[in-house]
Amino acid sequence: HPLHVERSEQTILVGDSGVGKTSLLVQFDQGKFIPGSFSATVGIGFTNKVVTVDNVKVKLQIWDTAGQERFRSVTHAYYRDAHALLLLYDITSKSSFDNIRAWLTEIHEYAQSDVVIMLLGNKADMSSERAIRREEGERLAREYSVPFMETSAKTGVNVELAFVAVAKELKSRAIQHSSEPKFRIHEYIEAQKEKSGCCSFF
Ligand code: GDP
Ligand code: MG
């Protein structure tokens, strides 16, 4: 069809203020860490990124929430239209971790039931100030059947992997009627873990 428009996968970053949502997006988009808080930015903006997975381009339109997260109420329309949600906490902040349940409750209430959710424990570089053990993140993720990894917007560890895993899952869903074997995000992440030979960040 001449008017065929490639679908843009609506991806939203959610989580408490200060967990590093904007920094994570900047790291993924520009490959750098700009220290300092962006939390003064109120509103919602997006960044377009194209991720190539298995020779297929996946267009991600990534929305960065700001300001609204303080009230833990991202406009419900954003949830409804989301194809993927990256839910962040800060491994040095117990409250940001404790709030994950409330975020998930809201997500389950307003988002599509087939939305791709990934839980990220950010600031993995701040090991001396760690308040949440990796196992606690894993346990919570298992309880909600969502994939999990620890990231650092500062060093960049696992940032690309998180978005690529989500893109792979979205692509797999778009072509699920083809003969290609179904992509399994949990298995993919496990395989990457084994490949890197290091699991301290997962
Ligand atoms: P947001 O409110 O969730 O968008 O969080 P920001 O991206 O504004 O980050 C809040 C603060 O945490 C800023 O001072 C960032 O520089 C810092 N920060 C964000 N991510 C990381 C990280 O992975 N490691 C470290 N050490 N600092 C981070
Ligand atoms: Mg922000």
* Shape summary: globular
From the structure provided, what is the oligomeric state, counting identical versus distinct chains? single chain
Estimated share of beta-strand residues: 15-25%
Instruction: Give the strand order, joined by hyphens, for the main sheet.
Output: 2-3-1-4-5-6
Give me the strand/helix succession. Answer: EHEEHEHHEHEHH
State mean pLDDT (0 to 100 scale). 85
Helix count, DSSP H or I runs of 4 or more residues: 7
What is the radius of gyration computed over CA atoms, rounded to a whole number of angstroms?
16 Å
Enzyme class: hydrolase
GO molecular function: G protein activity; GTP binding; metal ion binding
EC number: 3.6.5.2
Protein name: small monomeric GTPase
How do you describe this structure in short?
It contains 7 helices and 6 strands; from the N terminus they run E-H-E-E-H-E-H-H-E-H-E-H-H.
